[in-house]
Amino acid sequence: MSYQRDFTIGLRETQDFYLSLVLGHWRKGIAGFALVGALAALLYTMNTDLMLPVKAAVVLAGALAGAAVTVIAVSVSTLRKVREQVRRSGREQYVQETEINGFGVHVTVGKDRGKMGFEDLLRVRETRKAFYLFLSENQAWILPKAQMEDREGDCARLRELFSAVIEKGKLKLKG
């Protein structure tokens, strides 16, 4: 079984990748700010005559507000930083020629060629928007779903292929 496709990796795909990385690293921080929001709401409602269900709703709203503000702040900061880095690099987009076969993953970008056996991939993660084939913690080959010819079929083929050749501990697939 093999898969071959050219993908155009631009600002949007790069931002999506780094945003997923940063939000993953900020999971505990987001939970912490949600807790702070809940505690602040609890303190404000403690000595009031509000009924318990209303107090609980206010505390929940405080938690959601704390988490939302954190996600928004981290997201805006990350998107801005990635946009600046892409602009500084002078390479706003590139074509990534991708071939996945029984021997591993082969990628060509311009004159640069890379190949990696499945056992050497750090992990493969699927999100709503893409498959990420991690070379290291902060570097991955991106397979954007929006650019797939037959999105449903291609995603199913890739899931099947990755499930067959990559150990389960390295896989985080949607389907």
Describe how the helices and strands are arranged.
Elements: E1 3-9, H1 11-25, H2 27-45, H3 52-89, E2 94-101, E3 104-109, E4 112-116, E5 123-126, E6 130-136, E7 139-144, H4 151-165, E8 171-172
Parallel strand pairs: 5-8
Antiparallel strand pairs: 1-2, 2-3, 3-4, 5-6, 6-7
Helix pairs in contact: 1-3, 2-3
Describe the structure.
- The protein has 175 residues and is an alpha+beta fold.
- Helix content is 50%, strand content 26%.
- The protein contains four helices and eight strands.
- Strands 1-2-3-4 form a four-stranded antiparallel sheet. A four-stranded mixed sheet has the order 7-6-5-8, covered by helices on one side.
- Strand 3 (104-109) and strand 4 form a beta hairpin.
- The chain is elongated.
- The two termini are 19 Å apart.
- The model has no long low-confidence stretch (mean pLDDT 95).
Q: Measure the end-to-end span.
A: 19 Å
How many strands, which pairing sense, and closed or not: the largest β-sheet?
4 strands, antiparallel
Number of DSSP-assigned strands: 8
In DSSP terms, counting alpha (H) and pi (I) runs of 4 or more, how many helices?
4
Shape: elongated
Stretches where pLDDT is under 50 for at least 5 consecutive residues are none
> Any idea what the radius of gyration is?
21 Å
Largest sheet, spatial ordering of strands: 1-2-3-4
Average pLDDT metric: 95
Summarize the helix and strand pattern as letters. EHHHEEEEEEHE
Structural class: alpha+beta
Fraction of residues in β-strands = 25-35%
Percent range of helical residues:
40-55%
